[in-house]
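Much of what follows relies on a compact textual record of a protein's fold. An example makes this concrete, so a full record is given next.
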Amino acid sequence: MAPSTPTRSKGSAGALARGLGMMSLESPLADVPTNIRSRLTASPVSLGTKGLRAGAPGVSARRDKEDLLPGVPGDTDVRGVVAKDWDGPDINLTRRRNSAMVSRGDRYIPNRDLLRTGGTTPFLEDSAGDTLSRRSSSETTASSSDSHAAAAADLESAPALEGVCQVDLGQRILSFSAAPPSASHAKDLRVRYAPKPKSTLPSSLLAAGRRRIPTAPERVLDAPAIVPDFYANLLHWSSQNMIAIALQSAVYAWNSETGETQMLMDLDEESERVGGGGLVTSLQWDAHGNILAIGTDRGYTQIWDAARGARLRTLRPSAEGGADATAANVAAWAVDGTLSLGYASGLIREHDVRQRASETRSLEHAHAAQVCGLSWREDSALLASGGNDNVVKVWDRRTHVPKMRKENHRAAVKALAWSPHNSSLLATGGGSADRCIHFWNTTQNTRVQTIQTGAQITSLQWAPHYREIVSAHGVSQAENGTGALCIWAHPSGQKVADVPGAHDGRILHSSLSPDGQTLATVGSDESLKFWRLFEQTNDSAKAAQQRGVLSGYRGLTRTAPARSLR
């Protein structure tokens, strides 16, 4: 027998009433709130039903307002009218500000006192102020109490965390000003505002009284036929304890550990294709002390590997003869391997000798006269240059425009030295018509100090273990024809010591040993001398070890007779 299809009795209002009273989950009224559902189920009248009869059983002849939809007049036909499912109870929807909504402290920052004591207002609420949870108010209250009780129990163990982190959980983390310290923390205040300890670098004036500054050289070597040219740079001490010196067309390397001397190259024996037949005008070791750049008076620059005694490559001037076809007076290596060359024409050119096309930057007309001084800062970011136009310039390697330009000197600027204690400090020395040492703050482009030396300044060397700088001099105001060495304290500018007759002639060049204790000088009297001016004390040795200064000046013996480099 086929299943029967349930049918609705058209005239049975009681069945409709029973159906409304026994709603199933699929009934559309299941989602209607209880207050509205009670109104609808109180009368067994189908709203908007076309076959409604006033005399039907259980239906009142009078139409009460319970029989109508909210907001629909009693005499209006509701057929075709679409009404909202539910507009909510007719109550004031304005959110009531209860006593639990108190200030929680600073804006966006919860009050930790409330966390300790617990709060009654939930953090998530809907627009009517009811909690988003579907649980009853009693369950919500009990759950809230349980959660706050659990939070309070967790906070009982917070003092241990406070002690470990040394943080007060009730302290405000953001405020316009810090709370003033109490008088009970006087000891802490003394520690907080006490002056910082002085640098481990000893004071030059105090250290000068405790150390012996010799007035006689430790060792003397002959340097015959050295070119007495103020604009050339013919002496340099490498980080591998090798001294390179140019005697006219030949370059000699002297090992200060073993005392052995070898001739590295001679332009008279080189072909013209690589710059042979001229004079050496400049030389400079790279930062690692293995590669030597040798400049000539014809604009050629040879790159040599001293350990193997082999020429690696030659940087040639332009074939048509331009600004780079003049003497390469000075060379300077950056720590990153950049080689800068200064020419007599005023040109400064930079090379990366590891590349086939080595030229990386060309500063045309960097100086109006020949360039005689170049020095890279330790971080390879700034290059200082000095020329015969009496101008000092500082170049940022990223631009072709000088970062700083100063015209305070009244003579050629050959002596340039970056301070090892302050990367922004540059010292420059002028020629015979100037005789001044200027100190520049290259960050602010200002002159911070000037020392009047009274003699031509041919080179400057900073002491890495003392706050001192040593100047080598040529022609002096006394016109006695002798070169002097002077040690100056910084920043006071006072003279610590001097060696008035360091050479019989003027000092042409100077270079500092890799351990920073001994100064090598060569003069027009054709002698190479070594001076132990900055012997380390215990304090200075510790400072040098912290700074990572190289050591290894062990080959020079005291007061040895002069011997020839050839």
Remarks:
- The two ends are 132 Å apart (CA to CA).
- The first helix runs from residue 13 to 21.
- Residues 231-411 form a domain with the Methylamine Dehydrogenase; Chain H fold (CATH 2.130.10.10).
- The CA atoms of residues 211 and 537 lie 8 Å apart.
